[in-house]
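Researcher: Quick one. two chains, 1415 residues in total.
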Amino acid sequence: MAHETQASAAPIADVPLSPSFGWGWTIALLLSGILVVLLAYALIMLLLVGTGLWGTNIPFVWGFDLINYAWWIGIANGATLVASILVLRKHDLRTAVNRFAEAVSLFGVICAGIFPIFHLGKPWLFYWVFPLPYTFEVWPQFRSSLTWDFWAISTHAIMTAMLWYTGLIPDLATLRDRAATHRCRKVFGFFALGWRGSARHWAYHQTAYRIIAILMLPLILVMQSVVSLEHAVMLPPGWHQSSQPLYYIASGLAQGIAAVLLIAVLLRRLLGLERYIDDGDVQLMAKLVASSGLIIAYVYTSWILLSLLSSDAVRAATVARLNGTYAAFFWSSLVLMALVPQLLWIPRIRNSFWGTVLVALAAIVGVWLDRFSIMIGGLEKRYLPWGYDLYWPTTPEWFLLAGTAGLFTGQLLLFARYLPVVSMYETRHDEHLVEGR
Amino acid sequence: MMNNRDTEFWAKVNARLAGENGPQLWRSLEELAGTPEAQRLMEAEFPDLARPDLVDRRTLLRVMAASLALAGCNPSHPPLYSRPEGVPGHLRGRSIYFATTLELGGYGRGVVVDTHDGRPIRIDGNPLHPASLGAMDVFGQAEILSLYDPDRSRSPLENGLERDWETVKLFLASVRADLLGSRGRGVHILSEPLTSPTTIMLAEAVRTAYPEVAWHEYSPILDDYERVGAAMAFGRPVETVLDLTRADVVLSLGANLFLETPGHIRYAADFTARKRQGWETGGRPRLYVAETSPSITGASATERIILHPSEFEPFARAVLAHLTGQIRAEASHPAVAAVALALQAGSRGLVAVGRSQTPVVHAIAHAINAALGAPGQTLRYIDPISPWQKPRVESLIELTEAIAAGSVSHLLILGGNPAYDAPAGLNFGDMIRRVPLSFHLSTHFDETSVACRWHLPRRHPLESWGDLRAFDGTVGLRQPTTMPLVDALTPDELLGALATGTVPDGRELVRSYWRTRWADGFEDRWLKVLETGVVPGTASEPLDLRLREDWDPGPTPTPNPAGVTVTFTADPSVWDGRFANNGWLQELPRPLTKIVWGNAALIAPVTAEALGFEAGDIAELRAGELTLRAPVWPHPGQAPGTVTLQLGYGRWAAGRVGNLVGFNAYSLRPAQQPWAVDGVQIASTGEKQRLISTQNHHWIDGNEIIRTTSERDLAVTREAADLPSLYPEYPYVSYAWAMAIDLDACIGCNACVIACQSENNIPVIGPDEAARGRIMHWLRVDRYYSGEPSDPETYFQPVPCMHCEKAPCEVVCPVNATVHSSEGLNDMVYNRCIGTRTCSNNCPYKVRRFNWFDYSGGELNTVTAQANPEVTIRPRGVMEKCTYCVQRISSARIEARLENRLIRDGEVETACQSACPTRAIIFGDSNDPTTLVSRLRESPRNYALLGELNTQPRTTYLARVESSGSPVSPRPVNVEGE
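Model:
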């Protein structure tokens, strides 16, 4: 296997294999650790005291629980979409961003997965949505969008994990081969599944990887659609629209690409991987973010126009969302996820570290505000006016948001520390191609 | 078989319990188990129970059983003591019903109390009682919660220190000995209005024993003006009993007929019956309501006339002038002509006057009624139910003056809470403290108890014997429905003890009075009355009265001081403050404002705007030396330039529920003007307070949610009958339950809401949770306005679960926790629910309620003894909602199956239905075309709420019928001074 140990992959492999990682990393991990503790606190209190800790009520029965869920799923889906398309198209970019796009996707799913369980009144009974043959022979209600959601998110988690892991196998083998200690070798060796790098291995690996990637494509659309169906199939006039899946796909895609862009830029700067994630990669992703902003702008304009032409109830609900108590959420989300990304068309901003970071952050925050606007603002106007209090989040809900952000960051930090963030074999492959010419 | 040891044991128990002195009572099973005697006996008999580390559920049940057994050993109070004699055997788990009588403002309302295994759990109206006819108001129904109030006082207190009854008795005996010598000089007794024949007899006995005792009566809901007005007109106080079934035109001058009058339940029923009769005979009754602050009676009126308090007299005079043909030239209210015309045209009319109207208005009304020929036709005059003669507020002033003069040595306060609810200027609480020896008999250690030297616990009406007269004079019997939960006395027993020197048995007191009335067949009649709750033939005879020639003192000059006029009303939830510690009532949205947990200064929207007030702004009201800070609530339909305050809040010794809720309006109430104060200065304090209202001001436009029809054409527009649906129809082989709610009959009184809460163990959640939009009522009464905020039309719409045929909630629950039953109900399976709350999102009616916390186990719901054993107590994290009282359907089904028949129409009454005074709610089987509900669903007025969604609700509404009449606009009143 000596031929595999090319010098070019060394910086990537050095990262997970080096004994120390600098104080910056430690502090960052510590901070995310604190946030994870907050999350744990919020969840334990939730289990002990009850869902009433949140600002939810009748009719606003869902708050940050489902807002965050929809948001994290959006990040996961957008990132997966990027990763899959890159695998399938054998795009140059995939070398650079594939691995952590997959990681972002997986960690996003993990963060999202907390909410469907803990948003329940009785979280310890979450498994009742599984189609298990209980002795009392009650099956889940297959007409419920929440049941669909269960299938969608579990499929999504499995598929994302498979995509990520399959891509990781050859690199795990590299790590195994370079590991300094016996224990390290054992661990990486176990997960490398006996990879020897034979031509046959490579052939099977590529087939499997691409099959999974191609399966991911429809799955992502289904997944985003299913999340949106939690609104679309419901009766509230602000939710009940057959075009809801489109909004979710458009904004989720933008959010995912923005997340991948953000993390790519950060990793590149912090781990010194400029050579592997080059300016071209960043520029391409930045343009993708800006383009999806345009799509969002189009989709939302059409929604507003169509809603205003719709039935009285729908029109009233739309007007309430655009001009009611929560109007600020809608308009700021539209600005942040559709207009601000347009700045990336300007090369100077696209090329600057802070420019890309801030715009990507804006797009991500914008989508969160959009989820708030749909979940809460979409309910402000209902068929009957009854319902006397509005929804405003409480501290435990903010803990949930901050906590999952900490969990996400923490996972990313650990990933960056212990696994190769950029595909080594792809990098080598690219270099071979260059040499071959 | 009993062995020797058993016999010995029970004998010992009996001996010990019989040997106890004083009223032998137990408060709760747990407490009885905890008394030293019982404890010791139990340890001897059940040694393993005494070990505290072994208390598991099973043990607890055994302790309870043992306690019951011990309770049963008390020979002088057998456990079935309170069972009505003549009712056959007691079956465990089956309800026993007791007919008894509850009091409001001194007047009796007959109720039937549902008891389960010795625990009263529910109160319904007594169909045989004239003031109830089977329905019950919110106050009567909520008494069941007051009975179990954990804040009730449990022992006598002297200066706040616990004393046992033996000490009290010895002390009282010594006091009594002194007083007998002095013939009662210096003794003053202050009671609430007495209408009970037995109590009046005992009061006489006390007066005989102590000839110089001075008696006072006071109640903050004063009817002094009514008495003085009657004296003006007839030379004697009389009470007026209306017969609304016979009236074609009714003019109410500030009378809240359906909520505040002594006969309010009956009046609501009668008026609606007359309306229904109008369908057949043609011509519905016209109800004109002149009022300052909107009331539910005004909301049901054909025409609401908004009057400033000072305008009532000119208005009444103008109507009288029109009727007697002496139309005066001066400008009168624009509505006068229409009202007078209606009264004249209707052969049968009447005028009713509220207790807050001045005596002159009462006198004028008597004159109008005389001109209409109303007495004997649509109303009758009777002797006052309470024989008390002089104005009660004067009586209280006399007492205050006597205390100030130092001539009061002993003050006995029988019930009531004058230290809290006396007019502010009297400083009555401080006055009580000046009396050397004062006693207060009260269910709670309240504001007055704190001021008195002695507090004596009083029995709750549901633990007491007694009798009470209703608004029409009919006597209702009061009997205990439970073993007393607290070691306490009734006022009757205390008076009896004062008169005779020994504490008499309450039952014997009542029997001794009726023995004097029923010469022969006493026992038979007694049993009969115990069973029916009503003493037949006791309704007061109508009086034939002639109007005095000189009844009219001439027009009162209209004062026009700067500032606003403040009026006071009894609160629709806590009345005069006596229900302040009742969680159900505090959390009951007030009929019009929908405010919970507090009161507000109601002010016309235009006045609020002129003064720069918004809802919740705290205003300072200043009347002479009295000041009050109160949050303002702009109230559509309020007379401009007036502020209406509800009494009964701001208590500080009410208990854990009622303490410091709202502001105390009594602190602005002068003794001389108890109902309306002119010239009050109102100023903003710049502070704000959150008022919790469960409904924002909803204005309806269009005709969708609330539909109305006209008298001529009853048909409402309806959706196409068969909108397409993806789902197949359900087959119904037996019943298909349905409900129809008549919006034309609904008066918005909330009786159904409390009925539902009581029947279905709906928890109280407290002000903080209520403020967060989490109110738990399964049935709510939505209130809508239309028209101008200055003079709106008001509509009520009770909204229970619709039990949709195509229920949107059912299809979205991932775990199938809400499902369609074979009889069409939308069932909620609590133990299947995992709390996704999706069903609530998909419910367009928003009738689903979620247990955000463990409400049922929370601190406001400690009384599990009251809970209906037929209904599950819901744990935290599950959804709940109206079940159509499925437990009642089930028991009716069992009953019917046993008799091998189908459930009859009307056999199942939901709780809301049975409480409704106007029978606005009808429930039954829609699968049988002959049932009432099926016929109502065929009515042209029938419509489905949000029918366009094709949810096919099983609860449908009958449109309200609008009577045509010319609009009457309010007269502009200038708000000066600010």
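Confidence is low (pLDDT under 50) at residues 1-7 of chain A.
Researcher: Thanks, that's what I needed.
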